[in-house]
Design a protein that fits this description.
The complex is a heterodimer of chains A (403) and B (81). Chain A is 32% helix and 20% strand. In chain A, strands 1, 2, 5, 6, 7, 8, 9, 10, 11, 14 and 15 form an eleven-stranded mixed sheet that branches. Chain A has helices spanning 19-27, 66-82, 103-114, 124-128, 132-140, 156-169, 187-196, 234-239, 265-278, 299-311, 324-327, 334-347, and strands at residues 4-13, 16-17, 34-35, 48-49, 92-97, 147-150, 175-182, 225-233, 246-255, 288-290, 319-321, 350-351, 374-375, 380-387, 391-398. In chain A, helix 1 (19-27) crosses helix 12 (334-347), helix 2 (66-82) runs parallel beside helix 5 (132-140) and helix 6 (156-169) packs across helix 12. Chain A has 403 residues and is of the alpha/beta class. Chain B is mainly α and 81 residues long. Chain B has a single domain (3-77), classed as ACP-like (Non-ribosomal Peptide Synthetase Peptidyl Carrier Protein, Chain A). In chain B, 57% of the residues lie in helices and 0% in strands. Chain B is globular and about 35 Å long. The termini of chain B are close together. The chains are: A alpha/beta (403), B mainly alpha (81). At the A-B interface, loops of A face helix 2 of B.
Chain lengths: 403, 81
C-alpha cells in the first residue's frame, strides 16, 4: 500500500485567508467569532458566527457560490505550496466535503421565488449542487481523476480526507486535492439552528461565546470556511523533492446506527480505535487530539468518555483541545479546518488551546489545553469529527515519517 | 429606446456577468468568441429579461449567437411606445 504525504495546505477561516493568519490566531488564543455582517441580522436571535472576514475573500472567483469560492481560495494556497506535482492529470483527483453545499445561492433563489420576483437565476443549480466546489477545483487544476463531493454533515471533510488518502494508498490516484468547504451563514440555516436550541447566543461577547468542555458552555457557534490539502503518493512526493509537511497515517469511520442528533460514545470510540489501528499507532504515540469539541451539552462529555474508553488511564496524560472554541463550527468544513490548524500548530511546536474554558465541567475531566497554547513535541495527532446522523470520522496524522 | 441605448444597456449587463474585452463587444462578434459559454448566455438572458421587463422565448434565445442578435431580440420584444 502506498503511503500518503501532505505537501500542500490551504485554509480560509474566520481567522482570515491563509495559514499565516490561522497560525497567528491559534498561537495567540484569539477568537475569530464576530458579529455577523454578511447578511441582515434583523430576523436573527443569534447574531454572531465564525464569519470569514470580507477582505479575505471578496472579489475572488466570481460566478461561484460562497462555499466554492472558499474551496478555490484554499486550493489555490495548497497548490502553490505543493508546487509542480509532476503527475499526469488523469491521476489527480478531488474530494471536497460539504455539509450544506451552495446554501447562499439557494437562499437567494428561494427568497426571490417566494418574495419579490418569483424568478430563479439560471446558474442556481450548478452553483448550489454539493459537488460544485469539487468541480471547480477539478476544473481549475486540471484534476481529471477520481472526483466527487463527500457529505456526512459535520464529518464531511474528515471523510473526504480519509477517503482521498485511501484512494492514493490503493493506487487509484497519485495526488488528490482533499478537504472541505461550507458557507452556512444564511438566514434560513441560522434560523433552523436556532430552532434546534443548540446555539451559544451571546451577541454581546462573540469571542467568549463558544466554551467547549466548560461547565458554563451554552452550545456551538456556527462558522464558515474551507481547508484543502494536496495529498500525494509519498514515494512520488519524495522523488520529486517536495517538502513533506506530514503524512495521513490512518482513517477510521463508523456509524452510531442510533439517534440522528444524539451522539454515542461507542460510535466515536470505535472510530478512534479504527484510526489508530489503521495508522499502526499505539495510543502512546499520540500526543494530541483535536476534539470535535462543539461546546454543546451533548457532545463534550460523550466525546470525553469515548476518548477515555480508548486510551484508558493514559487519557489523562493526553492533550485534547477544541479549536472550535476559536473558529466556531464550520459544519462540513470543520474537520479539514481542524486538521489544517493542528498541523500548522504542531509543526510550529505548540498545541492550540481550548479558549473560554474557565470552569471545567466535572464530566469533562481531561487536559483540554485550557486558554493558552502550550509548547509540544508531539509528532502524531488525531482529529475527531462526528456528524449528525451518527457518522463518525477520525483522521490520524503523523508529522515525522520514519523510513 | 433607440438601438444605441439598448446596446449601451446590454454592454453593462454583459460586463456585469463576464469580463469581455472592449474590442470584442461588437455587433458581429460571436458570443462564443467573446468567451461567453452556454451557461453565461442563460445568465445574461435572465438579466436582460429582468432589466427590460420582457420574456424571451426559447427559440429566440437559441438563435442569439452574436451581440447584434442580442440587441435585435430586445428591440423586437420591447413594447413600442
Amino acid at each position: 500500500m502506498n503511503r500518503v504525504a501532505i505537501t500542500g495546505v490551504g485554509i480560509v477561516s474566520p481567522f482570515g485567508r491563509g495559514k499565516a493568519a490561522a497560525l497567528d490566531a491559534l498561537r495567540n488564543a484569539r477568537s475569530g467569532v464576530r458579529t455577523i455582517s454578511s447578511i441582515d441580522p434583523a430576523p436573527l436571535a443569534c447574531r454572531i458566527a465564525g464569519e470569514v472576514p470580507a477582505d479575505a475573500h471578496e472579489g475572488t472567483h466570481r460566478g461561484h457560490d460562497r462555499f466554492t469560492r472558499f474551496a478555490l481560495l484554499a486550493a489555490d494556497e495548497a497548490a502553490e505550496q505543493a508546487g509542480a506535482l509532476g503527475v499526469e492529470s488523469d491521476r489527480i483527483g478531488v474530494l471536497i466535503g460539504t455539509g450544506l453545499g451552495g446554501a447562499e445561492t439557494l437562499d437567494t433563489a428561494y427568497r426571490r421565488l417566494y418574495g419579490e420576483q418569483a424568478r430563479i437565476a439560471p446558474a442556481s443549480i450548478p452553483m448550489t449542487m454539493y459537488n460544485a466546489a469539487a468541480a471547480a477545483v477539478s476544473s481549475k487544476f486540471a484534476a481529471r481523476g477520481l472526483s466527487y463531493a463527500v457529505v456526512s454533515a459535520c464529518a464531511s471533510s474528515a471523510h473526504a480526507i480519509g477517503l482521498a488518502a485511501q484512494a492514493i494508498r490503493a493506487g487509484q490516484a497519485d495526488a488528490m486535492f482533499a478537504g472541505g468547504a461550507d458557507a452556512p451563514l444564511t438566514t434560513g440555516i441560522i434560523k433552523a439552528w436556532e430552532a434546534l436550541r443548540v446555539l451559544a447566543i451571546d451577541n454581546e461577547h462573540p469571542a467568549a461565546a463558544c466554551r467547549p468542555f466548560s461547565a458554563d458552555r451554552k452550545g456551538l457557534v456556527l462558522a464558515e470556511g474551507a481547508a484543502v490539502f494536496v495529498l500525494e503518493n509519498y514515494d512520488r512526493a519524495r522523488a520529486r523533492g517536495a517538502e513533506i509537511l506530514g503524512e495521513i497515517a490512518g482513517f477510521g469511520a463508523t456509524s452510531d446506527a442510533g439517534h440522528i442528533t444524539d451522539p454515542s460514545a461507542d460510535g466515536a470510540a470505535r472510530a478512534i480505535n479504527l484510526a489508530l489501528r489503521d495508522a499502526h499507532l499505539n495510543p502512546d504515540d499520540v500526543g494530541y487530539i483535536n476534539a470535535h469539541g462543539t461546546g454543546t451539552r451533548a457532545n463534550d462529555p460523550t466525546e470525553t468518555s469515548a476518548i477515555k474508553s480508548v486510551f484508558g488511564e493514559r487519557a489523562h496524560d493526553l492533550a485534547v483541545s477544541s479549536t472550535k472554541s476559536m473558529h466556531g463550527h464550520a459544519m462540513g468544513a470543520s474537520g479539514a479546518i481542524e486538521i489544517a490548524s493542528s498541523l500548522v500548530a504542531l509543526r510550529d511546536g505548540f498545541l492550540p488551546p481550548t479558549i473560554n474554558l474557565k470552569t471545567p465541567d466535572p464530566a469533562c475531566d481531561l487536559d483540554y489545553v485550557a486558554n493558552q497554547p502550550r509548547e509540544t513535541r508531539a509528532r502524531a495527532f488525531l482529529s475527531n469529527s462526528f456528524g449528525f446522523g451518527g457518522m463518525n470520522a477520525v483522521v490520524a496524522v503523523s508529522l515525522l515519517s520514519p523510513d | 429606446m433607440t438601438r444605441g441605448e439598448i446596446e449601451e444597456a446590454l454592454i453593462g449587463i454583459v460586463r456585469n456577468e463576464k469580463d469581455v474585452p472592449a474590442e470584442l463587444l461588437r455587433p458581429e462578434t460571436p458570443l462564443a468568441e467573446a468567451g461567453i459559454d452556454s451557461l453565461d448566455s442563460l445568465t445574461i438572458l435572465f438579466a436582460i429579461e429582468e432589466r427590460f421587463g420582457i420574456s424571451i422565448p426559447d427559440d429566440r434565445a437559441r438563435a442569439m449567437l452574436t451581440f447584434g442578435d442580442m440587441t435585435t431580440i430586445v428591440e423586437d420584444l420591447l413594447p413600442r411606445s
